[in-house]
Design brief:
This protein is an alpha+beta fold and about 160 residues long. It has two domains: about 1-40; about 45-160, Immunoglobulins (Immunoglobulin-like). Helices cover about 20% and strands about 40% of the residues. The protein has one helix spanning about 1-35; strands at about 45-50, 55, 60-65, 70-75, 80-90, 95-100, 110-115, 130-140, 145-160. The chain has a five-stranded antiparallel beta sheet, with no helix packed on it.
Length: about 160
């Protein structure tokens, strides 16, 4: 019987050793996936994350290889708003532009054309991927009082 006990202990040591090794490999794989290591080198289509009541319309957004950003923003707030500022952040450099254009009705667009130029795209070619953080500041009328709100998120895609 002593002989069978040693086999059981050996089997348990084998399972524990390989179990821990598999667990470590899984954790490393998940961390690498979360860091974006497995993402392809260039984006094939525009994509967005985040945003609230004011959303970019991806078909009308673009970042040129010259660093100029243009975009159309949709008012999805359900009430008229006034977009006052658009901030962008690319590779640590933040640029902002005051936007004029009056009130934007619900489900209508405000097009920001060449409002923000000079984003750091040096050394990149058209088709290279970018990830641009955007923050839109707008005013909404609540009970006769203007209230400042923000809608922010990230737009990724290929340079134009």
């Amino acid at each position: 019987m002593k002989f069978l006990g040693n086999k059981g202990q050996g089997a348990m040591e084998y399972l524990m050793t390989y179990g821990w090794a598999i667990l470590v490999v899984m954790i490393v794989g998940i961390v690498m996936w979360q860091l974006g290591i497995f993402n392809p080198g260039s984006a094939t289509a525009m994509n967005m994350q985040g945003f609230g009541a004011v959303k970019p319309q991806l078909a009308a957004c673009g970042l040129g290889a010259d660093g100029a950003f243009q975009c159309a923003f949709l008012n999805a707030a359900g009430t008229p708003i006034t977009i006052t500022q658009v901030k962008t952040k690319l590779e640590g450099q933040e640029l902002s532009q005051t936007v004029g254009g009056g009130a934007v009705s619900p489900n209508q667009h405000l097009v920001v054309t060449d409002a923000i130029a000079g984003l750091p795209t040096a050394g990149k070619n058209p088709g290279d991927s970018f990830s641009l953080a955007i923050e839109v500041t707008y005013e909404i009328d609540l009970g006769g009082e203007p209230v400042v709100r923000k809608s922010s998120g990230k737009v990724t895609g290929p340079l134009e």
